[in-house]
Amino acid sequence: MSTESKFPVRRRRRWWPWLLLLLSVCVVTLWTLPATLVYNLMASQLKDVEAGGLSGSLWKGEASSLLLRGKDWGKLNWTLRPLPLLQGRTEVDLRLDGPGVKLSGNVIRAADRAIDLGQTTGTIDAAWMGPALGLPLLVPTGSINLDLQGLSIDAEGKPTAIQGQARWVDAGLTGIVRARAGTVLIEASGRDGQIEGLLRNEGGGNLGIDGSFSMLGTLYQAEVMLRPDPNDAELVQALQWVGQPLDQSGGRLLLIEGEVHGWANSSANTQD
């Protein structure tokens, strides 16, 4: 009798179909992981951040409201890119649509609640600059169109690096007087918390706005020159209550100092 007849060959167990099934279940579970579940798991680590009206999944979803330190930034949509995760990178496409702000950008890294943004574009209501200017008698009007190539924000919501520009469109001031500045170009660059920028008026109104600003750590300062049309007596007279004399034609110089306190709060002091 042959050896094979005495000891039949044991059939090999095909384990790989079960492994494939298990991997498929894991992939489907991750792909359909509800955004609400992910948020509940991470909520304790998201200091000063509240999201409401969550829908969708970890990979593609929406929050109908996003609160940062109590300030409502509006609706947030996100799309998490899966392929960069295989390379150890996190990339998320974000779109923010809220009161006075519409932004879209790509988060290329997120760690310790700090974020780095790639190309970021959008529009912000100029009134958001009001607290930074520290001019209770004048409120900025118009909108700011952003075109940033890069922006880094630390865990507290303060910018640490930036490269890009913005255009203040239909720029103006309202309050004790109404002034039109047309379009103002704003350019900014810097890294490691040292940021510098320029404001350059491109014309189109009865008020010229030019100047420069810098930021070191959380502290910032700016010199803004307001040059009213000398033929606009009402505007020239109203600006006498603002800043320091710049020239004989009614121009005024604003010296602004302040500290950035993060996402929701900021303070500024304007030296008269």
Overview of this protein structure:
The protein has six helices and 16 strands. The protein is of the alpha+beta class. It has a domain at 119-145 and 156-272.
Q: List the secondary-structure elements in sequence, H or E.
A: HHHEEEEHEEEHEEEEEEHEEE
- Broad structural category: alpha+beta
**Sheet with the most strands, sense and barrel status:** 16 strands, antiparallel
Count helical runs: 6
Which segments are poorly predicted (pLDDT under 50) over 5 or more consecutive residues? Answer: 263-267
Could you list some keywords that capture this structure?
alpha+beta, 16-stranded antiparallel sheet, 272 residues, 6 helices
Summarize this structure briefly:
This protein is of the alpha+beta class. It has helices spanning 3-6, 16-31, 35-42, 82-86, 130-133, 233-238, and strands at 49-56, 60-68, 71-72, 75-80, 92-98, 101-111, 114-125, 138-153, 159-175, 179-191, 194-201, 207-216, 219-228, 244-245, 252-260, 266-271.
Secondary structure: elements and pairs:
Layout: H1 3-6, H2 16-31, H3 35-42, E1 49-56, E2 60-68, E3 71-72, E4 75-80, H4 82-86, E5 92-98, E6 101-111, E7 114-125, H5 130-133, E8 138-153, E9 159-175, E10 179-191, E11 194-201, E12 207-216, E13 219-228, H6 233-238, E14 244-245, E15 252-260, E16 266-271
Antiparallel strand pairs: 1-2, 2-3, 2-4, 4-5, 5-6, 6-7, 7-8, 8-9, 9-10, 10-11, 11-12, 12-13, 13-15, 14-15, 15-16
